[in-house]
């Protein structure tokens, strides 16, 4: 029965989505209870996979064979568990947060919202536990489709335009680039299975070096959810979505599915030796380093709260790709662990942006003077997340940045250390002024904050995620243990 656990983690959300639609608006309390129960069950199924995996037992199941070497199949490994643990745990907190957010703002189409959320998390689990490129691509596309109604939720002109960009970039990139790369991989190797060390032999590398270089770049830009510049514009445009959706997009599922997929390709399709033989690492270093610094500089110029967070996300996603591309053990640990460290830090920040909007309807950073005195839980949590994003010791972000710097030094690339240090300074430059405004500046119009107070349905989940930025910073051992099984 153990092999059914990945299917259970996927199907519990699909079942929940069906029940949510059936219940509809007739009984909102029951509808939301289904979401919460499904989230707890999903997380439980994921946790149940950890002991047998660490004992060395194989958890794998094949559903169907499509063509020779192309299966619909699932397999649990350390990288998939790392992604699934974070996503399933944060879905539970996001559901509680969503209830407070959606009800406080009396948002329309709440049934559709919670149903699409459930389908999105089912797709995320499919990506995490896919045993091959074919299965991963199917669920990758399903995640895009399931989140389109969430991005365009408000159904106004701006939301529909954001949804249009979302579709063009993500579906277009996957179809034009990623699918072409998958076809090239299958033609050359006869299989799409993930394998430690990769599936591309040295002989193939020597014979088809140029084609394999092209395919790798197609993967990087085909998995457009990773938002490597210049294919990043969809991500800030998607900020028109409700804040819990933004948290899903930027911290839990969508963007992490992009960098996760690229990490899979680098480590388990190409493999470290093939990447080195192709001589393409420097190109990937340039693309990711450019994205890290440029996106951070753009974030400095944005007054809209969620827009600043969005460009910060664009920057931090490339930390993960850069870490994996460096291929030293420390760099891979730093890149992969940043999936979780960034998730908890950034979801806290988006939750705070939403909490501020629910309580005060303020969306611009210049409007936040003094709001920390009215919303101390939210803004203190934002401070903790900020310290993590900067990389201050004992916080989650320090762990990933420490390993990334160590990895860059290990391969003799001090210039990449400069990229990480510069990015951290820019993080401080665009996040700390928000904290300063909130606690130390007086509002231009004191009466504008008279009715502002914490919404604790929103504040409690964000405080929990903020405290996890400390917990993971002090005790990262379990996540590192999972990642070392990948290396």
TrEMBL record:
The keyword Transmembrane helix applies. It holds the Pfam family Proton_antipo_M. InterPro entries: CPA3_Na-H_Antiporter_A, ND/Mrp_TM. It is a multi-pass membrane protein. Residues 130-426 form the NADH:quinone oxidoreductase/Mrp antiporter transmembrane domain. The chain crosses the membrane at residues 34-54, 82-101, 113-140, 166-189, 210-228, 248-271, 283-301, 317-336, 380-403, 415-436, 456-475. One of its GO terms (cellular component) is endomembrane system. This is Multisubunit sodium/proton antiporter MrpD subunit. It comes from Thermodesulfitimonas autotrophica. The lineage of its organism: Bacteria, Bacillati, Bacillota, Clostridia, Thermoanaerobacterales.
